Amino acid sequence: MCGIVGYIGRKEKKEILIDVLQKLEYRGYDSEVIATIESKKLKNYKAIGKLANLREKTKSYQSDGFGISIGHTRWATHGKPTELNAHPHLGSYSYVVHNGIIENYQELKSSLQSDGVKFLSQTDTETIVHIFEREYDKSGNPFDAFSDTIEILEGAYATLLISEISPDTIFFAKHGSPLLIGFDKDEVYFASSDTPVIGKATEVYYLEDGEYGYTKDGKVHLFDANGEKSFNKQALTADKVSAQKDGYRFFMEKEIYEQSRVMSETMMGRVLDNTIALDELDDSFLDGITSIKICACGTSYHSALTSAYLFERISKIRCDIEIASEFRYKEPLLTPDTLFITISQSGETADTLEALKMAKRAGLKSLSICNVDNSSIVRESDSAILTRAGIEKGVASTKAFATQTMVLWILSLYIAQERKTISKDKLKSEITAMLHTPKSLIVTETLHSKLHRLSKRYLHGHGFFFIGRDIFFPLALEGALKLKEISYLHAEGYPAGEMKHGPIALADSELFTIALMPKTMHYEKIKSNVEELSARDTTILAISSLPFELADDFIQTKYDSHPMLEFFEMMVVTQLLALEISVRLGNDVDMPRNLAKSVTVE
Ligand code: F6R
Asked: How far is the CA of 325 from the centre of ligand 1 (A)?
C-alpha cells in the first residue's frame, strides 16, 4: 500500500504535496512526509501518524520558486511506524519514496553493509537509495545509476527518487504497484492514483509494469526493457470529484446512507423492464465458457461467495471462489473454458491483480468487477463491469460491497438469460426484486437510533458470532469483518448449521450471536440453530422480518418478498451496528488502526 506523490514546477510545493497526500491517505496513515530540493538543497519533513501532524510540523515552511518535490504516506511493512522508518529514505545526497515490497532487500542490504553503508531504518526501501548512490559513484551518470538500480530490484514497487546531483530531475519506476504521471503545461505530477491530481493535471499517463524514466524541464523520458519509448497521454476526466462528508460524522456513515442511491446507478441501463443488458460484454463473451472462477480478497471475496450461490442456482453454471492470496501459490488447474472473474473495489489489490495475470497467462478469458475505472485490474482484464458506487473513502467497505453484489446478481441473470436457463416469468420476478433493492437500503431514523441505543449492550463479552445460511452465510462473514475492522472486537462469521460442529462450545451468556434469519430462505432451519444457541444462554440479536421470541434483542426488517431484498436490508443493519459500536468505543471509524484502503502489497 502506501501512497506516493511527486511534483516538479513553480507552484507552492508543500500545499500540492499535502493536498495529494490527504487524498492518498486511504492507502496508509502510519507516517506522512514531504521532501523537496530547492536551490540544490534537500529538505524533508516527517511526521508519525495522520496528516494533521505533518501539517502542524510544516506550518512555517513554504517552498519557493522552481523546485522538485516528493511525498509519501506509509502503511508499515518492514519496521515499526517510527520517524526513522518513515520515508523518504536518505542516502548521502538523495531521497527515495516507495510503495511495494523489495523482496531481495535482505541480500542487497547485506552486500551494502559489507561495503560500509550504514542503514538508519529497518525498511526495505532504504536499500534503493543506497544502491543508487553506489551505482552513481561508479558511473558518474545519474540516469544510468537509476536504471542499474531498477534492474537489481526484485518484488513490487512504484518509486520516486530525487538527488542533489541532479536537482531538477525526478527519477521514477513502476513494477507491480500503481503509479501515474500527470501533466499540466510544463508541470509534472506523480501519484499512486488519479483522483488526487484531478484539478491539478489535465492529462495523465498510467505507467505500465517495467516502465521507468526521468522528468526534467517539463518533459518526461520514458523507458522500458527495449529502451526509450513514446507514450500517449489521456485526458484526465474531472468527474471524479473528491468525496466530502456532507454533514455526516464519518465517510463510512455517509457511504452506508448512499447505498440506496448508488444501487440505482449500478442498475441503470443494465436492469431493464424484461431483460438484462450488459453492453460491456460482447456477443461472443460467453462462447466456450462452462464454468466460472472468482478471485478476490476481504469484503470483495464475500461478495464473490454470495454470487456462487446465484451463478449455480440461477445461471446453472459451476462457480468456484478463491481467496486471491491462496490461489496464487496453489498451482491451480486452469482450463480455457473457465471465465476468470476478479472483484475489487480499488482495482489495485496486489494479490487479486497477480491472480488475474496468472489466469491470463493460462489463456483464460477475464472479467473484472471494479469500482475504479482505469485501475490496474480493469486495464489488465479483457472486459470490466464498473460498480458505479462512487468514491469510497471509509476504509471499511460498505457501498462497494453492496454494488459488487448487485453487479454479480445482474451478471448471474444475464448469463441465465443468454443461456436460456431461466424462464421469462422467473427473470421478470428477479428484475422486479432488483428494482426494489434501493428501497431495502434506505436507512430510517428509527432504525439508526435503535441500533445506536442497542450498541451499548455489545461493547464487552468474549466475542461475536454472526450466523446465517446460504447467501446469508457470506453476509455473516461480511458483518463480522465490518465489526472487527472498526471495533477491534473479536467476531466470526459462521454457517448457522456448522455451529454444532465445534464453535457452540464457546456458547455462554458472554457470547453475542447476531442471527440473520430471513423469512424467504431456510427460516425453520436457522431458527432451530438459533434455538440451540439460546438454550446455552448466548445473548442473541436476531434480525428478521418474523418475530422471534427467544431473541434478547430484535431488529425487525420489512422487505421480505425476495432473499436478496432481505440480504440487502440485513446488510445495512450489520453495517450500522458495527459503526455504532465503534463510535461508542471511541475508535477512528474511517481510518481504523493497522488498515489501509488499498492493499498493494501481497
Ligand atoms: C474490508 C475491506 C477489505 C477489502 C480488501 C480487498 O472492509 O475493504 O477487506 O475488501 O482489501 O480490496 P479491493 O476490493 O480493493 O480489492
From this structure: 13
